[in-house]
Amino acid sequence: MKEPILEPLLRKMRLRQVLPYLLRYPSCRILDIGCGWEAKLLREVESFIKYGVGVDFKAPLIKTEKLETLPFTLQSGLPFNDRSFDFITMLAVMEHLEDDVAVLRECERLLKPGGGLLITVPSWYAKPILEILSFKLNLLNPDEIRDHKRYYDKSDLVSLFEQIDGLYLQEHAYFQFGFNNRVFARKNG
Hints:
By secondary structure, the chain is α/β, with parallel strands linked by helices.
């Protein structure tokens, strides 16, 4: 699949956000929601984890000793037992979802006590820039940008996590010149 020129660069920048948090969970079981068509995150962190699962409607079929992908949409709950994962990532995913609260509740269900959730989502500042880069300059995939249901700032994310019992927002930061949010939350326990 041929990507517009900026897509791989932005993905690589998001991946760099993950490793410092993942290292808090050595030899963990990780779930990457929205792993993408190449499951790049799982492949990048394979040496740091015990086992990794990626879900995405466009996921490649991977089944190795340490990695697995499932082509799956987030229309309903995910096919995993409660408390199955130590660490969950959703990089550039929540802005595409109809019900971000339901997905966060599902993450809470899937995390082990003390488990971590790392999310990246675009900020409101990014909206006009992403639209120019995609619709005018064709440097980003216009279908991906058109599919954005929402953008977030820190107060939006704080309000969102206040609706999720048992999952607590611990850290928030802007990155990529304020165009993206990084959120780290932990499950109580």
